[in-house]
Design goal:
The complex is a heterodimer.
Chain A lengths: L15 H14 L3 E6 L7 E4 L1 H7 L3 H4 L15 H12 L3 E8 L5 E12 L5 E10 L1 H41 L3 E5 L5 E4 L1 H6 L15 H4 L4 H10 L6 E10 L3 E11 L10 E7 L1 H38 L5 H31 L8 E4 H15 L4 E6 L4 E4 L1 H17 L6 E9 L2 E8 L6 H4 L10 H4 L8 H11 L3 E6 L5 E8 L3
Parallel strand pairs in A: 12-14
Antiparallel strand pairs in A: 1-2, 1-5, 3-4, 4-5, 6-7, 6-10, 8-9, 9-10, 11-13, 14-15, 15-17, 16-17
Chain B lengths: L4 E5 L3 H13 L3 E5 L5 H8 L3 E5 L7 H10 L8 E5 L4 H8 L3 E4 L4 H12 L1
Parallel strand pairs in B: 1-2, 1-3, 3-4, 4-5
Helix pairs in contact in B: 3-4
Classes of the chains: A alpha+beta, B alpha/beta.
């Protein structure tokens, strides 16, 4: 026989007692707690509870029947859901609320209560049925989620605050530095600018932000060198450092600037943005130039009387009788010191130039062997004490600064003579070694101790052992080293103390 | 008869006098000129066999004088030794078309050797 729930409870088809029993078993097997209260009795006592309700509440059936539901709330009475519940009971309506309830052992549990009225044939409410679900886990999860959301929110606020602080901090640095800074977008429009830029180039922020760099200040930034930097060099050589731009601005005059450019390659909001910094070195260059000019003129002027004195001394040497040793010696000494004075003047000029930066090279193609020959003749002309012997040859036309390289050879030769007072010969050896020109100058004098060999190329270095005997500025070899380095070559020394020294340099042959 | 006249031009009176003395002591006839623009007129008057000239002089620089001399047929082959204390003196002298360059301060024996080459 079929059962049909829609037509009333009919489970077994045998008796109401059996049906009731089955129904009670079913209700007890239910996971939700179920209670029924009697609306007609005072204080609406609970008249029925199922097993699940006992389990959820922790109370025995005997402790539940006869009581009002509120005993589950303990002292936690002020809950908004209670008023919804009261209202529903008063009006005989259904309601679903979430309540904080307490088990017998005092533990809190969240009770999702579905309340519905039971009415008699006349429509009067006789009972209320409550279905209860323990939603503590869900509630806890929700609360946890909310807590995490709140925490996240708090962190976002904190992060934002830090970011803002950071931004302000960085911005205050950018605004304070004494260097002009620009940030450009990928289309070379100015995104931001610092105060120093505005001040230096006499523009306002309004005339700058959003404008394409080349269009700034009536096109006065349309600088060919700058275009080359941003469009040709930067894309393949990021970042670009110390790129020198010299430009005559129509309104503020000539400026020499060192530019650093960095294009952001990191993916993100700032990708392709270009940071551009300008160091205005106009004044520095001018003052360097003034110093350089002064020293050039001073050394030129100092050499004029020196030329005259040297001429007269040599004339005296020629006219005086050769048989007076003391006079000959005195004249030779005077000549030596005149040469030394000339060296000092040369060093003074070179020191000044090198301090200003690189040695400027005037490259031209010249006969290398001839250059060495001329240097040797030059030195031989001033010193009769040593014979300078050239062996070997390069047979090369070399592209370099002839004057500077001649200066190196002369310096190595005069050093060789100076530091081998007891010897009578200096050897110069020329050769080609697998793509390099090699020049070696050997003397048979005092030599250089191992510990001093690296230091001799440092500026103002003077070996202790020679300081008293041979006064000087300690600049000559430093200058030589710089000149050779500027030709992409190498200068070094091989020596043993008391056994003489060989100073050699190699220069790459560019074919 | 060899022309042993050497014309020396320098705005520095000390160097000029010394050079004249040195050259004379070696048997040359030295003529001094301290004012570079006068060089062309002086050359016409004394017909030197050799010119020794400084670079940096007021009114007209030595290399400018050399350039002018090289333009005229009668002086284009005249031997000119440029003397200077400038770092780039040799380059300037070569560019102007000078015959030889000697840096200041020079060795007079070297200078005389060079002078004698032109009279050999």
């Amino acid at each position: 026989m079929d059962t049909d729930n829609s037509l009333g409870f009919n489970f077994s088809g045998e008796s109401h007692e059996l049906d009731f029993h089955l129904l009670k078993l079913a209700v007890d097997a239910f996971v939700a707690g179920i209670i029924i209260t009697d609306y007609r009795q005072p204080d609406h006592p609970i008249v029925y509870c199922n097993k699940a309700f006992e389990k959820i509440s922790g109370y025995q059936r005997s402790e539940i029947i006869g009581r009002n539901c509120r005993f589950l709330q303990g002292d936690d009475r002020e809950q908004p859901a209670r008023y919804l519940l009261k209202e529903a009971i008063k009006n005989g309506e259904t309601a679903t609320v979430e309540l904080r309830n307490y088990r017998k052992n005092g533990d809190l549990f969240w009770n999702e209560l579905y309340l519905s009225p039971i009415k008699d044939a006349n429509g009067n409410v006789t009972n209320f049925m409550g279905v209860q679900n323990d939603i503590t886990k869900r509630k806890n999860a929700e609360q946890q989620l909310q807590k995490e959301r709140d925490e996240m929110e708090r962190r976002v606020i904190e992060r934002t605050r830090l970011l803002k602080e950071n931004e302000e901090y960085l911005s205050s640095i950018l605004q304070t530095v004494r260097e002009s800074l620009l940030v450009l977008g990928p289309d070379l429009r100015v995104l931001s600018v610092n105060r120093h830029f505005l001040r230096t180039f006499k523009v306002s922020e309004a005339e700058t932000i959003g404008i394409k760099l080349y269009d700034l200040g009536d096109d006065q930034w349309n600088i060919p060198q700058l275009k080359e930097l941003l469009e040709t060099i930067l894309p393949s050589n990021n970042p670009v450092l110390d790129f020198e731009v010299s430009y005559e601005f129509p309104q503020i005059g000539k400026k020499i600037m060192l530019l650093n450019a960095h294009q952001i390659e990191l993916d993100g909001e700032y990708k392709q943005h270009i940071l551009l910094s300008f160091e205005d070195i106009t004044e520095r260059r001018e003052s360097e130039q003034r110093k350089d000019d002064f020293i050039s003129i001073a050394s030129h002027e100092l050499r004029s009387p020196l030329t005259t004195v040297k001429g007269y001394i040599q004339l005296l040497e020629r006219m005086l009788p050769k048989d007076n040793d003391k006079v000959t010696q005195a004249i030779a000494k005077t000549n030596d010191y005149l040469n030394r004075m000339n060296e000092l003047i040369t060093n003074l000029l070179d020191t000044s130039r090198i301090q200003n930066g690189k040695i400027e090279l005037h490259k031209e193609v010249f006969d290398f062997d001839q250059m060495v020959k001329e240097a040797v003749e030059n030195v031989q002309g001033s010193y009769n004490s040593h014979r300078i012997v050239i062996t070997g040859s390069t047979k090369l036309s070399y592209a370099g600064d002839q004057h500077r390289l001649e200066q190196v050879v002369i310096n190595l030769l005069t050093n060789a003579i100076k530091y081998s007072p007891e010897a009578s010969e200096i050897a110069v050896y020329l050769s080609r070694v697998s793509g390099f020109i090699k020049v070696a100058v050997t003397d048979y004098g005092l030599g250089i101790g191992r510990e001093d060999q690296k230091k001799v190329f440092e500026r103002f270095f003077r070996a202790n052992s020679i300081q008293k005997k041979f006064p000087g500025m300690g600049i000559g070899l430093y200058v030589c080293d710089q000149i050779i380095k500027n030709h992409k070559g190498t200068l070094w020394v091989d020596s043993e103390a008391e056994k003489g020294a060989t100073f050699s340099f190699t220069l790459p042959i560019e074919l | 008869m060899i022309n042993k006249t050497v014309l020396v031009c320098d705005d520095d009176q000390g160097i000029l006098e010394m050079l004249v003395l040195v050259l004379e002591s070696y048997g040359y006839q030295a003529v001094a000129e301290s004012n570079s623009p006068n060089m062309f007129k002086t050359i016409e008057q004394v017909h030197p066999g050799l010119v020794i000239i400084d670079l940096w002089m007021p009114e007209m620089t030595g290399d400018e004088v050399v350039k002018q001399l090289r333009k005229k047929p009668e002086t284009q082959d005249l031997p000119v030794i440029v003397i200077s204390a400038s770092m780039d003196g040799k380059q300037m002298a070569d560019n102007a078309g000078a015959t030889h360059f000697i840096s200041k301060p020079f060795d007079i024996f070297n200078l005389i050797d060079k002078v004698e080459e032109y009279y050999a």
